[in-house]
Automatic annotation (TrEMBL), chain A:
GO terms for cellular component: glutamyl-tRNA(Gln) amidotransferase complex; mitochondrion. InterPro entries: Amidase, Amidase_CS, Amidase_dom, AS_sf, GatA. This is glutaminyl-tRNA synthase (glutamine-hydrolyzing). It catalyses: L-glutamyl-tRNA(Gln) + L-glutamine + ATP + H2O = L-glutaminyl-tRNA(Gln) + L-glutamate + ADP + phosphate + H(+). It comes from freshwater metagenome. Its EC number is 6.3.5.7. Pfam families: Amidase. Keywords: ATP-binding, Ligase, Nucleotide-binding, Protein biosynthesis. One of its GO terms (biological process) is translation.
From TrEMBL, chain B:
InterPro entries: Asp/Glu-ADT_sf_sub_c, GatC. This is Unannotated protein. One of its GO terms (biological process) is glutaminyl-tRNAGln biosynthesis via transamidation. Residues 53-99 are annotated as: Disordered.
Amino acid sequence: MITRSAHEMAAALQSGDTTSVALTQAHLDRIGAVDKEVHAFLYVDTEGALAQAKGVDDSRARGEKLGPLAGVPLALKDVMVQKGVPTTCGSKILEGWRPPYDSTVVSNLKSAGIVILGKTNMDEFAMGSSTENSAYGPTHNPWDLTRIPGGSGGGSSASLAAFEAPLAIGTDTGGSIRQPAAVTGTVGVKPTYGGVSRYGLVAFSSSLDQAGPCARTVLDAALLHEIIAGHDPKDATSINAPVPQVVQAAKNGDVKGMKIGFVKELNGEGYQPGVRSRFEESLELLAKAGAEIVEVSCPNFEYALAAYYLIAPSECSSNLARFDAMRYGIRVGDEDGASAESVMNLTREVGFGREVKRRIILGTYALSSGYFDAYYGSAQKVRTLIMEDFTKAFTSADVLVSPTCPTTAFKIGEKANDPLAMYLNDIATIPVNMAGIGGMSLPCGLAPEDNLPVGFQIMAPAMQDQRMYQVGAALEAALLTQWGAPLLSKIPALAGGK
Amino acid sequence: MSTLSRSDVANLARLARIDMTDEELDHLATEMDVILTAVARVQEVATADIKPTSHPIPINNVTRPDVVRPSLSPDEALSGAPAQEEGRFRVPQILGEEA
């Protein structure tokens, strides 16, 4: 049962073939068996999950009307607050903190009867592309335990690939949903900015952060998307418009007559040969399915990475000022006579990891007087140019596509001491965040040279998220016909799961 | 490109309220040079005629009706406090010793 899709699990629950308690217990058992190897979870809420599952089973027995995924378990990225459940954001500074409220995403999940299994590992405050920046140790990629599961949401993606959960929540500031999905052979979607509420999502870079669904199939992602999305008065940047019809699009999957634009600048030099060949094969499959493939050019994308590493650190240096050791989190050096400032300085020194400090310092510099125009101001102008590139490209294509990442999963430790090399992972995912549009990654095969998953990225204009699901479903179906079984059927067995 | 000295980084760390060790400051000064050189590329295309974008969607002020609504109780609000006293956050002294 645990290897099935969330949609199939929901059907089994509806037909009475299983119960949510049994399904939840099966996943908890799986976590118990394999998470020593994978380390996808920072906290497993056994009691809470089983109580929630029992509640859904009881509602069902009473004949109450339930949502389409009611009773199906989910893994929650540790950047999303859940009342009473430890939330660390992968940081020492929040060790032991139990939030006094639910994020809107969590409220929506609970209302839909989704069972929350626990909190997943991540790069500290979502800053990273490998989950190596977690203060609680790295997560291992279930395809090869010596490799990274992507980041920052490596725990969420690894939990899906390890069959510890059929659904997960991620957040994506520069690719933190899509890149982990790509390197673990799973599906991840960054909705249009403002499509999913940020209330209760611990802020990293407020103009870029966006929560979204992670799953093993396009339809599962769509079902979860509709549950978490929608206008929220508690988030001033939430879009007050109907949620795009993504489930319908995922069930449709017809690309006849659609124009699919491949972005010239997001392929070629710097992209691994196996990534390119799988991507190009997928383009051919979409053409066979009736889509028209066109080439588009986005010349300013080459400046996106530089602009991102000014905008995101600038916003983070401001957002992370709230961790001041006064109201929540750890406090260090509070001895007789110590000043608030010295306690703050010591706590932040001890509580933050290297990458977080690096970005706070970079952001502080970029925002300081005398440098503001040259750095932050210029980055904001590049943001305008990137948005203009997208606007132009979308006049000749309904969606844009590219490989999600330039390479497959690299080895743990390989790039840990080279921040710039690490940042390059996000080269194809960052433009989407800069423009606030939607992006999806779905698996398109294994690279022949290393047998590791490759991600195919689909980008759609703002609030046209259904287009990604339509194209994603078409490609998924064509690949399934070619393979005969889902990509994850090829994943090596974990020792604890044997 | 401007290069950052250790004392420049120490000043930034002071502004950011992080009490860094000398070793960290040295390491960061080196790294910041490399990173700043890379990100300075934005200046190649950011000409005076381009309007800056601070946010992906145009946002005006968003308000709600000014009515009382449920919020956290004092106990809930204090539940994560590193220290508390008489229903308040207890913090280290914020003024000088002579105050």
